[in-house]
Each structure stands twice: as C-alpha cells, then as structure tokens.
Amino acid sequence: MATEQMTTGQRIARARRRKGWDQVTLAEKIGRSVSWLSKVENGRLPLDRMSVLGHVAEVLGVEIAELTGQPYRHETDDLDSGHAAIPGLRLALQHATMPGGAMLLGNREPRGLDELEANVRLAEQLRQDAKFTALGEVLPQIITDLLLITSSASAARDRAEALMLRACHMARVTANLLGHHDLGWTAVQRELVAAQQVGAPELVGAASWDLCGVWLHEASLDAAKNAALAALDQIDPYVGSGDGTVRALWGALHLRAAVAYSRLWSQNDAESHLAEARRIAEGLPADGNVFQTLFNRVNVNIHAVEVSMELGRPRDVVSRAEQVEIARIGSHERQAHYWTCTAAGYHMNGKENEAVEALIRADRTAP
Fold first, then answer.
1. Does a structural domain hold residue 87?
2. Alpha-carbon distance 299 to 336, whole Å?
3. Distance CA 102, CA 147 (A)
4. Percentages helix, strand, coil for the chain, rounded to the nearest 5?
5. What is the CA angle 131-182-230, rounded to 5?
6. Which domain holds residue 305?
C-alpha cells in the first residue's frame, strides 16, 4: 500500500513490525490492552489525542509525522492550502539561518522598513485568516528583504530583527499547520537569533512561545513544558512593566504550559497554568493579539476545551465548548481549531452528528 494511502493505525503496525514486536509487546510498553491496540491498528478506534499519539511515537522511536502521514496533500491546487509555497519558503529560511546567507542573494536593494512593516501587518492578517496560499506568495520575499537589512550595519537593525521574528513566526505556523515540522524548527531558530540579537524581553517571550509551539507539534512534550517554564522564569522580572505586551506573553506561555501538561496527563498542573492564564487575560484587552499569540479571554477558553480533550474528559470538553464566545475572536485559524477540538469532544461523547457538524463548520471557516 502506498504510504499516503495508509491509515495512522497501519503506520503504527508498520513501525511495530519494524521493531520486531508483536501487539502484546507494544501494548505492554504503552500501557494499553492488546484489544485497544488491535482496534487502533485496524482502524476501528481513532487516535484523537496528540498525547496518546505522541506517547506511541516515543515508544516506537519514530517521529510523529511518520505515524500521521504528514504533510497532508490534496489532489487539487485550490484545496492544497499553502503547500505550493513551501519550496520558496524553505529556501528563504535556509538563507536566513546560514552564516553569510545574505551573500547568496546577490547585489540588490531590499524594500524600506516602513514598506516591509506594512507588508508584515498584511501578512499577519492572512495568517489569522488561515489564507496560507496567499501568505506563501508574499512571505519568502519579506524574509529575504529583512535578511539583507539585518545582515548590514544598518542603524535600524533592531527594528528589522523584530520584524524578522514576526515574519518567521508566520513561517513557523504555516510549516507546522501544513505538517512540514522540520521547516517549523528552521523558522523558530531564526526567531531565537532575532530575540538574542535585540535582547528585549518581549522578543524573548515571543520566540520562546513559538519554540513551545514547534515542540508541541512534534509531540516533544517534556521539551515544550520545560521551554515554557524556562521562558516564564526569564521574563518574570518584566511582567509588571511596560504596556502589557510582556504580561500578555506571560499569559500565552502559561497556555503553552497548560497544553503540554495536559498531553502529559497531569491534570493539576494543566489546570493550574490555565487558571493563571485566565486571571491574566481578565486584565488585558478582550481582542488582544500580542505577537500573533491571540492572547485574550476567548482564546483562553478555547485552550480550556483543548486541555479537557487532551486529558480525556469528554463532558468537560463539551461543557467548556459551550462557554466559548467563538464569534468574538477575530481569527479563522483559532475558530477552526475550536471547532476541531469541539468535534473531538462530541465524538468522545458518542455524539457523532454533532461531531460531523462541528467539523463541517471548521472546514467552512478555514478549508
């Protein structure tokens, strides 16, 4: 069977056989019954939680993308959201992360920083609207222009590095959501360089938030948790100062920690970080979107739905989903994520019609 036609269960079975294990051996190692594993491998039981899938991948010694079959591709260009832009984006990020990468771009003048900042703002709207095809058409050139500026002795270098961080964040999100996780890691590496170059606590917090995102997508849960906790300690001295930017990033990092702990099946820690994020959000703008984190009250509630789903608490998923005022968050990506988590919750409760309707709403929001 062609790899792209295999189910997740069939990929698990293939990885198990490659290890020379029978179902009894793998079931024992992951703490599950043979009956459960058999149902997963033959497709009768879906793996609907990243926490479970990540644990299986860890035990089998494979990357999670091997089990999920990512990146997912469609048969038509109009549904192949953003994939066509990946080669150009990969090349731009390779230049941006290699020593002397700007020298490979030839002698040309980049656009001015005012124009680039306006382009970054427009691109950020495309990212929130989940229009990844359109985003992919403009993002590589933005990164390339910013590389030329940051590689010079320009007095505006810090400003350009801050814009580079924002541009690479969009590259990271695009790469991870489309399943190109190696490219997501390349993008976040450049973010960390930008944060280090400037040294501002808000850039440190934003880059660390994205670093957690990469590891969550790869199901490297301890790494994600530890990165979130380390970043919280690092920006702690700056939380009470400034215009609330660092405070919002502080809250967003608590949400990262909450998701990581939920996938590690640590309910008390997950709920504790979720509660702290909720407390912080109450004192910040209802439409907050610092560094594209969408940290605000609605997004905290969306994370609460996800945390309950990952902890395997079906009733909490649905009850928390009903409390989310989803129309009040201006991001198609976040709205689609909410409906996907809600669909999983309905499925966990045996409410298949509601689950299908939620998935249809997600698809209509961000195909």
1. yes
2. 12
3. 6
4. 75, 0, 25
5. 95
6. 296-367
